[in-house]
Structure formats: structure tokens, C-alpha cells
Specification:
Elements (H helix, E strand, L loop, with lengths): L4 H10 L1 E4 L5 H16 L7 H6 L10 H8 L3 H9 L10 E5 L34 E6 L11 E3 L3 H12 L17 E2 L7 E5 L4 E3 L8 E8 L10 H4 L9 H8 L2
Antiparallel strand pairs: 1-6, 2-8, 3-6, 3-8, 4-5, 4-7
Helix pairs in contact: 2-4
């Protein structure tokens, strides 16, 4: 399976693309059932901050019920074609739940890049851990804003690229780059939709002001030749996207 020309063009322009219905409903429902069964056993209130930063339901995060969302759907062949190089086996993912909040009004989203240290996310202090691609699989419907939506700053990958070229990738160790960003966009979708996201695209989850839990799983995708830190992906957003680099070059050439 391949990205269409228009999907590649949006991916190049915005740094992300939503791919509708890529994961079959039986895999979505199986994952939801396993997540809800885990939640039914109770949540440790003391670990909620860690769960938000890393993953809820950690006892099932590295089981086939989660990894099959990629490995047994059209997601895997699409990634293989777009990246165009051998990939590390996907053995699990981040179970990302956003519970209803009591904010009134909900605060505006703030962007981040993955692989930066925080006290709860598991990234060692003084290190950057980047990767090839971020893949999100939506497990519940998002029909309006502030329902815990996956939120992106379209085109921010180009702005961060420019910043890191001028200041070196290691500048990320000092915190998020201070660059003028476009308005954030809260992505809507249906269960089984997939968000394909460039590593350099600023993103977050919006506050959930709705009545229901937002269910999603996120996967960090690595080429087999990607170590924990590859500075080149911060200087060229398409450095590891061998499968679509020629199409992107044709789009960006004057």
C-alpha cells in the first residue's frame, strides 16, 4: 500500500496526514475491550502522571492486542513503502487515554516534540531520543474540538528544521524552540483512522472537555539503522523517508 500523491503533498506541507479507516474495526474493538478490561481492575492514582506521560494499561501495551493495530493492518505496508527501508519490529505502543477534565474554559494546547526529557516520561536527562515516524491510531470518535484531540501545528516541522539548522539539534536539550508557530489544528476522526506524523511536527493532546474518554494508541516507528539519537532527522525532516523523498523533492522544487 502506498500514500497517494495528494497525501504525500499534505504530509510534506503540514507534517502530518490523517488516513481514514486504515485499521479494521475488529482490531479497534479488540484493543478497546482489552483497555477497558484493564481499567476495570483499577488505576493507581499515584501513577496517573506517569501514565499520561508514558502509557496507560502498561501490562497490555506490549501485547499483540496493541501491536496488531500496526502489524495486522494496512499501516505496516504503508510505512514500509513510505520509509523505504527495513523497520524495527513493532512490539507495542503507547495507550494514550484522555479523561474528561473540569477546566472552564479549557486551556489552549501547547506543542512539544517527542524525545525530550521530563521527570515522568522515561527519557534520560541530557539526552534526545528521536525516531523516524509517529503513528497514531484513533480508537474512539472525535467529532468536535477539545475532546482530547490529537493536535498539530501544521508546517511546524519546517520551522523547527530551520531552528535546528541555525542552532544545532542539541539546542532541544534547553527546551522547546522559541519560534513563531501557526495556529494549532485539532484533528477529528473516527475509530480506525490513522495519524501519520513527521518526527519534527509539533503536537500535543488537547484538553478533553467532553463527557467521554478519548482512546488512542501511538507508536514510535524506527528504521533498523536508527539509533536512539539521529541528529539528521532534525536537520532534514525527510532524511529517513527514502520511499517518498523523490516525490517530496518534485513537490518542493520551484
Amino acid at each position: 500500500m502506498n500514500l497517494s500523491y495528494s497525501e504525500i503533498a499534505q504530509f510534506e506541507r503540514d507534517g502530518y496526514v490523517r488516513l481514514a479507516g486504515l485499521v479494521p474495526q475488529y482490531l479497534v474493538q479488540r484493543a478497546r475491550k482489552a483497555i477497558n478490561a484493564s481499567l476495570g481492575s483499577g488505576l493507581d492514582a499515584e501513577n496517573m502522571t506517569k501514565f499520561r506521560a508514558q502509557s496507560f494499561c502498561p501490562e497490555i501495551g506490549h501485547t499483540p492486542v496493541i501491536s496488531d493495530l500496526v502489524n495486522c493492518s494496512a499501516v505496516l505496508p504503508l510505512l514500509q513503502a513510505a520509509i523505504g527501508a527495513p523497520l524495527r519490529t513493532v512490539t507495542g505502543g503507547q495507550i494514550a487515554l484522555r479523561f474528561p477534565s473540569e477546566y472552564n474554559p479549557p486551556p489552549l494546547p501547547r506543542p512539544h516534540l517527542d524525545g525530550m526529557h521530563s521527570p515522568t516520561n522515561g527519557v534520560p536527562e541530557g539526552r534526545i531520543q528521536n525516531f523516524t515516524a509517529l503513528v497514531g491510531v484513533l480508537l474512539s470518535p472525535l467529532t468536535s474540538d477539545f475532546q482530547g484531540n490529537f493536535t498539530v501545528w501544521p508546517g511546524s516541522h519546517k520551522l523547527y528544521q530551520k531552528y535546528f539548522i541555525e542552532n544545532t539539534p542539541e539546542a532541544l536539550l534547553k527546551g522547546m524552540p522559541a519560534v513563531d508557530l501557526p495556529a494549532p489544528f485539532q484533528v477529528r476522526g473516527e475509530p480506525g483512522d490513522v495519524f501519520l506524523v513527521n518526527y519534527l511536527t509539533g503536537h500535543t493532546a488537547a484538553v478533553n472537555d467532553g463527557p467521554d474518554i478519548r482512546y488512542a494508541c501511538f507508536f514510535r516507528i524506527y528504521r533498523t539503522d536508527h539509533n536512539d539519537y539521529v541528529p539528521e532527522v532534525m536537520l532534514d525532516p525527510w532524511h529517513e523517508w527514502t520511499g517518498i523523498r523523490d516525490v517530496i523533492s518534485s513537490i518542493t522544487q520551484p
